[in-house]
């Protein structure tokens, strides 16, 4: 049976003032688990663990607004996962502070050794102004990706997992040189690690934080080359790779034509390019729910399937590849937990937090009313197989 604490008891346990607890309640950062019949606001042990996380992130230098967005969808996390994420944040913060210290030491040497101070060079060297934001974005991106993956893992009807299905389409043979652009957290390779032949695998991402996640996830797989770069300029010679892979990446790049030129350039003459995307109907029921709640909400700042989707992808690819095959992963979701849908919505790239977090309880009540028992959610995802 859960144990509950009054506001004063809860504040004393955390060595905080009652005023602070009440303020967190007021802004929606930490609501009590229940309100007793006599009106007392009652906090649980789980609330205490969330408070511990809030204080940990606050100590790391994040604003309350940032902490709100980083903790509002924590319901999908187990206690162990939550603590693991916090430890990771602290490790990254330590690394960040070490980098700042090195930057300061280099700047000190630069000033000592130079008679004419080049302030531009100094500012270029002290590049830690953006480190805090980078750390925040990495945390949010990694967490949000995991939330979206877990929704599909938990509720997909097709017994063949998306990553397993995609991997089964790749024609991988021993000795091949394989490049993945935008590898993210490396889930594709972890899930299929027992079936990976003896290939020369290069995993890349524009985010060093994502690459670090992939390295940690794939530490049992030897001889993977990890490279951080922008795929608009791929730093490899012509005709280097037998296979290039880009899963749900092309709709994020600024210049698709330039990226496809680069992919074509580094592919061998008989090479194959595999790229996945989704179509206009993908997760449309969630979009419909959001639009009914507030038409101003968009789950993505742009319609990614209009940039590169199942409907227009072949036309975009045709100038660069002579033969293109389209395969669709036949699947849909049956979701019976409204919290998982809410977490998914909050993990998206759009402006939803701006509207939802202002009155989260109202939004949750709306979703509970709409998703009473179970909801079927359309999936429209597939892969293009492109031969040079």
UniProtKB/TrEMBL annotation:
What one GO molecular function would you report for this record? Answer: DNA binding
**Family matches, as InterPro entries:** DNA-bd_dom_put_sf, MerR-type_HTH_dom, MerR_fam, Methyltransf_11, SAM-dependent_MTases_sf
DNA-binding is among the record's keywords: yes
- Do the record's keywords include DNA-binding? yes
Q: What is this protein called?
A: MerR-like DNA binding protein
Check the record and name the CDD domains matching this protein. Answer: AdoMet_MTases, HTH_TipAL-Mta
Which segments constitute the HTH merR-type domain? 4-73
Determine the domain of life of the protein's source.
Answer: Bacteria
Name the keywords, alphabetized: DNA-binding
Pfam families under this entry?
MerR_1 (PF13411), Methyltransf_11 (PF08241)
- Upper lineage: Bacteria, Bacillati, Bacillota, Erysipelotrichia, Erysipelotrichales
Which PROSITE patterns does the record match to this protein? HTH_MERR_1, HTH_MERR_2
Q: Which residues form the signal peptide?
A: none
């Amino acid at each position: 049976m859960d144990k509950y604490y009054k506001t004063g008891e809860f504040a004393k346990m955390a060595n905080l003032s009652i005023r602070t607890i009440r303020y967190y309640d007021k802004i929606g950062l930490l609501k009590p688990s229940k309100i007793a019949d006599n009106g007392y606001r009652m906090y649980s042990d789980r609330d205490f663990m969330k408070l511990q996380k809030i204080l940990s992130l606050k100590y790391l230098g994040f604003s309350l607004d940032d902490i709100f967005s980083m903790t509002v969808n924590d319901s999908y996390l187990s206690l162990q996962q939550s603590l693991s994420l916090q430890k990771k944040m602290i490790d990254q913060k330590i690394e960040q502070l070490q980098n700042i210290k090195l930057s300061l030491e280099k700047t000190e040497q630069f000033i000592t050794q130079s008679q004419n101070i080049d302030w531009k060079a100094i500012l270029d060297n002290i590049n830690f102004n953006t480190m805090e934001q980078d750390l925040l974005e990495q945390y949010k991106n990694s967490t949000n990706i995991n939330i979206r993956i877990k929704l599909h893992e938990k509720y997909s009807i097709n017994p063949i997992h998306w990553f397993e299905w995609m991997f089964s389409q790749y024609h991988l043979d021993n000795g091949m040189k394989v490049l993945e652009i935008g590898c993210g957290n490396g889930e594709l390779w972890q899930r299929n690690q027992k079936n990976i032949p003896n290939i020369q695998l290069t995993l890349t991402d524009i985010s060093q934080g994502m690459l670090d996640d992939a390295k940690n996830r794939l530490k049992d797989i030897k001889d993977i080359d990890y490279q951080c770069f922008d795929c608009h300029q791929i730093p490899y010679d012509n005709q280097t790779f037998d296979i290039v892979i880009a899963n749900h990446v092309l709709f994020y790049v600024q210049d698709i034509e330039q990226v496809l030129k680069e992919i074509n350039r580094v592919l061998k003459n008989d090479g194959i390019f595999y790229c996945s995307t989704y179509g206009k109907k993908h997760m449309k029921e969630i979009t419909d729910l959001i639009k009914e709640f507030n038409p101003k909400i968009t789950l993505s700042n742009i319609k990614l399937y209009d940039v590169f989707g199942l409907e227009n992808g072949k036309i975009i690819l045709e100038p660069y590849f002579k033969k293109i095959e389209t395969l669709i992963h036949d699947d849909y979701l049956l979701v019976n937990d409204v919290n998982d849908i809410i977490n998914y919505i909050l993990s998206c790239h759009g402006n939803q937090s701006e509207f939802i977090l202002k009155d989260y309880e109202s939004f949750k009540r709306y979703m509970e009313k709409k998703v009473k028992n179970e909801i079927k959610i359309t999936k429209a995802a597939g892969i293009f197989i492109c031969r040079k």
